[in-house]
Amino acid sequence: MRPRPPFPPRPARRRSPAGLAALLALLLVGGEWAQELIDQFAFGGTLDSYGIVPRDPGSLPHVLTAPFLHVGFGHLIANTVPLAVLAFMSALRGVGRFLAATLVIVVVGGLLVWLFGRGNSVHLGASELVFGYLAYLLGVGWWERTPVAIAAAVVALFLYGGALWGVLPTNPVVSWEAHLFGFLAGLLAAALLHRRRPPRAAQISPSSPRSRF
Fold this sequence. Notes:
213 residues; mainly alpha; 55% helix; disordered C terminus
């Protein structure tokens, strides 16, 4: 009897871009909820002290934590749906770019809040990410100008364009600074990650005429 040849290994299934984007959005939103549950039931809301207090040296590291904190469940619920939708749409641009854009929004947006935000106040909440992802999608549409990128920008603007009024100082208990600087950081992320580079100039051959100056 001849031994049977081993079965060929099954090719590994690759998760679709939409599946990866949904997973990233779920992890982000799930992390926000897990943090708030722990904060409320284990720490009595004291983790909110890790928000950004502008120009307080001890608060500077809180740039990295502030977008993941909320003042109670009402605040978190208000941010959950737009965060999930815009994070999913942003993650469709690729995992690496999504993570890089998130880092730019958190760090640059948070630093601007720390530098220019209202003093004697604590700035926290995922709305910095919400405005950052909205601006990121709009910026990608502007920089890439492909049908897919433009369509994503139009959808994002249609769904949440009305939120852009949040960058104005209309409510004293809302951190419009986080909205504004998160938005600017999202535009910066789009420019850094999606701006088309100009083509390299053709090298001058030795036989080319030369000008004096």
